[in-house]
Design brief:
The protein is an alpha/beta fold and 540 residues long. Helices cover 24% and strands 18% of the residues.
Amino acid sequence: MNQHIDWWRHAVVYEVYPRSFQDSNGDGIGDLDGITARLPYLKGLGVDAVWIAPFFRSPMRDFGYDVSDYLDVDPMFGTMRSFETLVECAHSLGLRVMIDLVLSHSSDQHPWFAASRADRSNLQADWYVWADAKPDGTPPNNWLSIFGGSAWQWDTRREQYYLHNFLASQPDLNFHTPAVQDALLEVARFWLVRGVDGFRLDTVNFYTHDRQLRNNPPQPRGQFAGAAHRSNPYAWQRHLHDKTQPENLVFIERLRALCEGFPGSVLLGEIGDDQQYKTLAEYTAGDKRLQMAYVFRLLERACSARHLAGVLEEYLRDASRSRVCWSVGNHDVERVASRWSAWGATARQRAELAAALLLSLPGGKCIYQGEELGLTEVDVPFEQLRDPFGITMWPQKMGRDGCRTPMPWTRAPGAGFTTGTPWLPIADEHLPLAVREQVGDAGSLHAFYVDWLGWHRGERLLRDGALQLLAPTDQVLAFERVAGGESLICVFNLSGEPADYRIDRNAVAVEGRSIGALLEGGEVRLERCGMLFARVKTAA
């Protein structure tokens, strides 16, 4: 599928978390054959590509984000032939396939790490980030792990510390070693040869660290880093030295050069940084780095009209010329129908509003599995938690299990996901939202998604229009998409109370696109969680 090499510019990518999408063999864990069986559903939904979270061999300490073999499928998910069949089937349906590459770190069970930790003089000794202790035996610096505690773990074999930005069982690879970069490029080549259409690059700005291992300074008083919660000490530092180093861009350019040999392949980066849009702009600059990237600004809890206007102002100031991929949910954050509960109204109304807002923004979009059904966050009891981050941060509910529960396909036992015992509990409240209950129902949220994805695909202003922010109010977020002498005004009531908004131009509401809204003489009356789309001729 190398035709239309710029397919990604306006693409809608559907993220599949394979453990929870579809189980084909009754072991309670989703797999690749299950994904293949459900590809017609994704085609019918109207997305352009599927992004599959990691399925490589792994001890599953972080459920696949700790890779022990980059070049093989974990038997839990199937075989290499299972993957090849998935790609063939997806391409036959006109769907692209992107896979999740976790390059910043591996599992401590990877043969590379086993060799590296054996002693200080072997050929792979510097493939990971090792450092001597301070004279008092403490870690080399103050860097912290996102999962809690020091980012340094003592190893008795080498009598040194190794760096881990996440779990201690996820040691960071040393990108200052050329052989590491070469090996990881061969990993990417391996999967490109097998037909993938691109990569979602996990923690793409974490690859390279400061060679001098300088301490991170504290955040200014009252400020906290990125999307991390203030109850996590990681949020208390300015992350100037443990990630987002200039040398990182050299490797990204090498990876992009490799992908250029496979026309149509795309690099989608995940950026978590203190200055998210500035970093995104740097990482997508020109035509030698990432094609697009996403940040966490729409994945936070804050969702007021003025806050989201501030997010868009930040984007326009720092990255308006960049290629952004927008999302309101993924496998790492609370489901949007629950997370943005400050909007009031019902979960269904919030889900519709979030979807319409997402699809109104320029560039690519990601939809997380189940968003099209309106799935809410599941309150998983502590004794059933599987997420190591959630267990560590308990009782502050920061874990990821609540958004990773199995996809409900039917109301039957196992929700059509499995005939066995599911790896995470299936929520009773999700059963009425199952795919079988919604597909074919013109009034369902699924039908809303199908309709709006179709409009997104065919509406020129949503594809090509520049984003111009209009003045927000305490309740209303408004912007327009402008191109070719025409403007599409998008107005959203991000509150649980009725709201008014003034449009100072002769606008005409787009038929079938306004929900809970009335436009008369430039005055917009919006019901709670209402939205209006209006067309304006801006020039002859």
